[in-house]
Amino acid sequence: MSVPHALLALLSEGPKHGLRLQNEFELRTGNAWPLNVGQVYTTLQRLERDGLVETDDGAGERSQKRYRITSGGAQELAGWLRTPPALVPPPRDELVIKVLVALQVAGSDIHEILQVHRRHVIEIMQRYTRIKAEAGPDDVPLALVTDAQLFRLEATVRWLDAAEVRLTQLPPLTPPAEVEEPPVPAPAEEVSR
Amino acid sequence: MTRPLELRQVSKVYGSGPSEVHALSAVDLSVERGELVAVMGPSGSGKSTLLTIAGSLEEASSGQVLVDGLDLATVSRSERATMRRRSIGYVFQAFNLLPGLTAVENAALPLELDGISAKAARAAGRKALEALDVAERADRYPDELSGGERQRVAIARAIVGERGLLLADEPTGALDSVNGEGVMRLLRAATKRGVAGVVVTHEAQLASWADRVVFLRDGHVVDQTLAPPGPESLLAAADRR
């Protein structure tokens, strides 16, 4: 979650105080990402330093200051909204590695291992769904936040289901036969020119 | 206190000899009032067989099926049919509303079939529609209702009267995820009013609406989820990130 860009988005509606920004941020993200007020002010200071927001004239307590977005800030926000997030998968997926390793470990029950992970993921899904259930269907920001998590988790369950089908259809894998040490090559004869 | 549904060591075998198929093997499952249980498993794992046996649409080969404490094997065929009409509600994938009946007539239908007077059945049907927040459409025919309203009427029909057990087989059918969620939200609300619910699904997102998820594989219950902790732990985890 990019807090600076979320604050820019809130300021794009008009000038606001730091405390109001904190409240609105939490409200609109369905309270899924609690944000402390110190983090709000540190972020605002950085945005001000970079010329993306500015404050009302006149020195006052920082809680009295009203922040407004600059044209540079609006441009930054518009660009960020259109920039694709990093969706490239991580170089190593721990779950995939565990399943691959389990295939090689003698005596391990691969179906039982897949089920342990499936149950764990669905238990997490139940917790996210409960948040959504208790909030009611009208809390759209919260539904969007929980949906994003639920679709990611569901993808993991579907991968586990697919793995199960593939492993049921395939004969059991056997560990690769030991490879004999290759003979040491004789020194190449010098080629006469 | 009796449970709305209890399966004890239930097995179901189709065919005999070399063509014998064990659809269910020694399944134990209890569902409490107010509890929604999801049954998940791959194709052919026995999910739908479990539901039809629980709903007394099919008989178990061995084991006991108790609905409201009544062992289905100890009662006559007609008593079973009565129990099926009075105690069990079904939600089907296509909702199966009768096109020639209004919403309230559809909702009241199981009671009328049970010999209850049309007036009393309609009153109960209207009450069920109210519970599903669709009472103002009571006199409309199915083709005058939106897809969401038809879902609500179908669930109202399943909970009408004093039914204690609600059974649903892939109830969201081909609905998109948001409308599918609407159905699960309604089923969950229905069970919170004191009904026991069992929903069969192969979709993890739908199953996650249940209080408990039971996993079937090759006719065996192989696992189930533990009672989930409160959502606070997730928010705390999000805060740390």
Mean pLDDT of chain B: 88
Backbone shape of chain A: elongated
Provide the CATH top-level class of the largest domain in chain A.
Answer: Mainly Alpha
Tally of helical segments of chain A:
7
List SSEs of chain B in N-to-C order. Answer: EEEHEEHEHHHEHEHEEH
Low-confidence stretches of chain B: 237-241
Protein described:
The complex is a heterodimer of chains A (193) and B (241). The mean pLDDT of chain A is 84. Chain A has 193 residues and is mainly alpha-helical. Chain A has a three-stranded antiparallel sheet with strand order 1-3-2. In chain A, 20% of the residues are buried. Chain A has seven helices and three strands, in the order H-E-H-H-E-E-H-H-H-H. By secondary structure, chain B is of the alpha/beta class. In chain B, 36% of the residues lie in helices and 24% in strands. In chain B, the strands form two sheets. Chain B has a six-stranded mixed sheet with strand order 6-7-8-3-9-10. Chain B has a four-stranded antiparallel sheet with strand order 2-1-4-5, covered by helices on one side. In chain B, a hairpin with a 2-residue loop joins strand 4 and strand 5. The C terminus of chain B is likely disordered. Chains A and B meet through helix 6 and helix 7 of A and helix 6, helix 7, strand 9, strand 10 and helix 8 of B.
Gist?
The complex is a heterodimer of chains A (193) and B (241). With 193 residues, chain A is mainly α.
Descriptive tags:
heterodimer; A: 193 residues; mainly alpha; Arc Repressor Mutant, subunit A; 2 domains; three-stranded antiparallel β-sheet; 7 helices; 5% strand; B: 241 residues; alpha/beta; Rossmann fold; six-stranded mixed β-sheet; four-stranded antiparallel β-sheet; 8 helices; 36% helix; disordered C terminus
Write the layout of secondary structure elements.
The complex is a heterodimer of chains A (193) and B (241).
Chain A: H1 3-11, E1 16-17, H2 18-28, H3 37-49, E2 53-55, E3 66-69, H4 71-82, H5 94-104, H6 110-135, H7 140-169
Antiparallel strand pairs in A: 1-3, 2-3
Chain B: E1 5-14, E2 21-31, E3 36-40, H1 47-54, E4 62-67, E5 70-71, H2 77-87, E6 88-91, H3 103-113, H4 118-131, H5 147-159, E7 165-169, H6 177-192, E8 196-200, H7 204-207, E9 212-217, E10 220-224, H8 232-240
Parallel strand pairs in B: 3-8, 3-9, 6-7, 7-8
Antiparallel strand pairs in B: 1-2, 1-4, 4-5, 9-10
Helix pairs in contact in B: 3-4, 3-5, 4-5, 5-6
